[in-house]
Amino acid sequence: MISRCRIVIKGTVQGVGFRPFVYRLAGMYNINGSVLNSSRGVIIEAEGEEGMVQAFINMIKENPPALSEINSFQVSELPPAGFTCFEILKSSHDQTSEALIPPDVGTCPACAGEILDPKDRHYRYPFTNCTNCGPRFTIIEKIPYDRLKTSMKTFSMCSYCGAEYNNPLDRRFHAQPVACPACGPGVRTTDNKGEQAAEDKNWLEFAWSALGKGKVFALKSLGGFHLTCDAHNADAVKSLRIRKGRQAKPFAVMCKDMDTVRKYYHVNNDENKLLLSPQAPIVILKKREHFGLPEELAPKLNTMGVMLPYTPLHLLIFSGPFDILVMTSGNYSELPLVIKNENAIDELSAIADYFLFHNREIVNRCDDSLIQILDGEVSFFRRSRGYTPQPILIMRKKNSPVVVGIGGEMKNSFCILKQNQAFMSQYIGEIDTIEGEKNLFDSFANFQRLIGAKPEIVAYDAHPDYASSYMARKVPAENYVEVQHHHAHLASCMAENNLDNEDIIGVILDGTGYGIDGNIWGFEVFKGSYTGFERMFHLAYVPLPGGEIAIRQPWRTAYSYLATFLGNRGKEHAGEIFADRDINIVEQLIASSFNSPLSCGCGRLFDAVSAMLGVCHENTYEGQAAIELGEIALKASESILKASYSYTVTGDTILPGEMLEGIIEDKFAGVPAEAISVKFHNTLVNIICDAAVRISARTGIKKVVLSGGTWHNEYLFKTTVKALRRERFQVCFHRQVPTNDGGIALGQAMIAHWRLKDVKGRK
Ligand SMILES: [Zn+2]
Ligand SMILES: [Zn+2]
Ligand SMILES: [Zn+2]
Question: How far does the centroid of ligand 2 lie from the alpha carbon of residue 129, in Å?
Fold first, then answer.
């Protein structure tokens, strides 16, 4: 019997080889009909023998193309129409856009093979791609995803590329950015004044020779420019640091292949898999004991970010004499990544000696994603290239309003809730500069167009002076919702763990967030849900003498901690430890309460302990003192792993006086900093566990969510999760969005959704 079905598939199904896959299957099962990309997703008409149609549908469901992600699969039966063949129809354009834009994909092995094969027409061609790999999000202007709506629209395909593009059985069938040396984008090298540096055909040899001489290149990659130099050359790395204004923050590196990665770094199975994944993120790895590369790459740290080549351009550079190159973002510290050729020389000529340009425009800026494997779990520092704009599925009804969370002030990433999907933007970064603000504004406009969503509710941080809050109010919408920073952290973690609006315990540890009492919060144990929170416990406040300066100079915070909790004895200790610092100024600031905001940020407590132990006196990048203190805890000997200090809880306030006393005592008794660091970490674990147990005893709640930047700390994370599980808590943490401020937009949006859902009369 002949039957006919219409199948509508939604999710990431465009630009991932879905139509050729369906076309081939139709041939195998004798199916007539059609397949087409619409802005609602892929629509298939299938007519044939009943059993064959069923088998065809099952095959699509069970073995879809590797890069696709199906969110919904609807089949409806229709009367037979008498189709006589199976065809791929032209994209349809209708109003609703539910089709998802695929993220960028690292070069596939087949394309990598072609660019290194002298007999292939893609030999040495840096823009080779196919349905399984290549640029996507970074080149898309509009939906549905079609070449004419990407920055490839200015290149018309040659007859060879056209033949591959039109052949349903070819790997390049309907691969929108398909290109070859005869028809696609090209490469150009210049010096830092914009003068041509080498003949175009010799770009690769020129790059090898200049890198070999220790020169710095600004290299146009997929989502923006990179700055690159030979990672073996300490002088080159040093001069890159000086020119970029980056004192100690580790540089990311790119390695030729996995053998090279293993030569310099420890790699476990999870890290190996992540490095080789199509998303090709930067993965944080531990250096080998005999690292053999310059200390300047990641001063004082045992870990740094490593990635593999993910574009043909990178692969070609690594086909020369280098096995490892610094590959850091092309910008001055804290400014957005440069993406336009016309700005690159202006903006980067003081850093780079040479430029490697290409003429395929980057439409959407997209930084490299940065991930750490923590206790076998993926933990994002930065969720961007390779992941954006893939949505995260959340618990929400389909007719819910479109909600925007604008995100925080640092590590900004905004979020758009549409139906039951949360679209996190690419990494936007710092937005308290004119450039940063423009970046947020432009990216938001582009993103909104690509998602096809008109905001109804906009949520933002409660901090009165944040640029993001000001910008949020400029987004046209019906309602605006202010959200407390740490409540947003809590809700973000609840949302990605698919928790319903139920009361849970939230342990939110980070550096800075505006509290509802006007002080700076950051060591918070909440009882809360999407609709509200109660602050059950928090660390006692200390003044930060000098405000922002104290954040840059942790010794100031250390002084404040010692003086606040140990009085005159503490001041004496501080005088001894920080003899070379201008203690009088700090003392006066605290005494007069001038420019000394009160803070209970966990990051500040780490700063203080790090400075007391002489681990780090200056934060030259965000979190430096805390990161260095966290890393040495991992080096401590087995015998100390159970030890900790005492502390007191009065009412809702955690008092660290006894712990500080213990730390000072140990320090003067010559206990190594590694051991003190472990005892300090263990004390925090005890504080957190005790607080959770007390709340649970009162309320019966057995779920704990962990959020906030401090949870990047490996020792603290592992030990706390273990301790809470021992107390039979269900522990939820971040796996899909960053635990740092890069994830709060999701929480802001979810809170706004829940607060207004009754106002809107729908759920
Ligand atoms: Zn490919
Ligand atoms: Zn071509
Ligand atoms: Zn935060």
Answer: 11
- Compute the distance from residue 195 Cα to the ligand 2 centre, in Å: 28
Helices and strands of the chain, counted as H and E runs: 22, 31
E strand map for 544-638: 598-599
Tokens of 539: 């660390």
pLDDT digits (tens, 9 = 90+) for 207-255: 999 999 999 999 999 999 999 999 999 999 999 999 999 999 999 999 9
613, 676 contact by CB (below 8 A)? yes
C-alpha to C-alpha distance for 220 and 187, rounded to whole angstroms: 9
CB 565 within 8 A of CB 657: yes
Q: Say what the pLDDT of residue 94 is.
A: 52
Q: What per-residue confidence (pLDDT) applies to 759?
A: 61
Confidence grade of residue 95 (pLDDT, cut at 50, 70, 90): very low
2-88 maps to CATH 3.30.70.100: yes
pLDDT tens figures, 458-496: 999 999 999 999 999 999 999 999 999 999 999 999 999
Q: Are 561 and 605 in contact (CB under 8 A)?
A: yes
CATH number of 187-358: 3.90.870.10
Q: Give me the CATH topology for the region 101-184.
A: DHBP synthase (3.90.870)
What is the mean pLDDT of the segment spanning 697-724? 98
Separation of 579 CA from ligand 1 center, angstroms?
Answer: 61
Domain 386-497+734-757 class in CATH: alpha beta
**Residues measured by CB to lie within 5 Å of ligand 3, the ion:** 510, 513, 741
Percent of the chain at pLDDT above 90?
Answer: 88
What's the distance, Cα to Cα, between the start and end of the chain in Å?
44
Domains 386-497+734-757 and 542-693 share a fold: no
Question: What is the number of the ligand closest to the CA of 485?
Answer: 3
Q: What is the dihedral of CA 746, 752, 754, 758, to 10 degrees?
A: -150
Ligand nearest to the CA of 311: 1
How remote is the CA of residue 165 from the centroid of ligand 3, in Å?
47
Mean pLDDT of 641-649: 95
In angstroms, the CA 298 to CA 310 distance is 23
Reduced to 3 states (helix: H, G, I; strand: E, B; else coil), residue 32 is strand
- Residue 527 Cα to ligand 3 middle (Å): 17
Neighbours of ion ligand 1 (CB under 5 A): 108, 111, 130, 132-133
Ligand nearest to the CA of 623: 3
CA distance 599 to 512: 8
Confidence of residue 97 (pLDDT cuts 50, 70, 90): low
* Nearest listed ligand to the Cα of residue 734: 3
What separation in Å is there between the alpha carbon of 218 and the centre of ligand 3? Answer: 32
Distance from residue 105's CA to the centre of ligand 1 (Å) = 9
Residue 762 has pLDDT above 50, yes or no: no
How many Cβ atoms from other residues are within 10 Å of residue 690's Cβ?
A: 17
pLDDT at residue 536 greater than cutoff 90: yes
Ligand nearest to the CA of 179: 2
Relative to beta strand 403-405, strand 457-461 is: parallel
Asked if 556 contacts 549 with a C-beta cutoff of 8 angstroms, the reply is yes
Q: Are 268 and 373 in contact (CB under 8 A)?
A: yes
- CATH number 3.40.50.720 is the correct assignment for the domain at 542-693: no
| Closest ligand by atom to 17 CA | 1
Q: Which ligand is nearest to the CA of 105?
A: 1
- pTM assigned to the model: 0.92
Proportion of the chain above pLDDT 70, given as a percent: 98
CB 218 within 8 A of CB 357: no
3-state helix, strand, coil in the chain (%, to 5): 35, 20, 40
CA 127 – ligand 2 centroid, Å: 11
The tokens of 175 are what?
């691969």
Distance (Å) from CA 66 to ligand 1 centroid? 13
Proximal ligand: closest to the CA of 493: 3
Domain boundaries along the sequence of the chain: 2-88, 101-184, 187-358, 386-497+734-757, 542-693
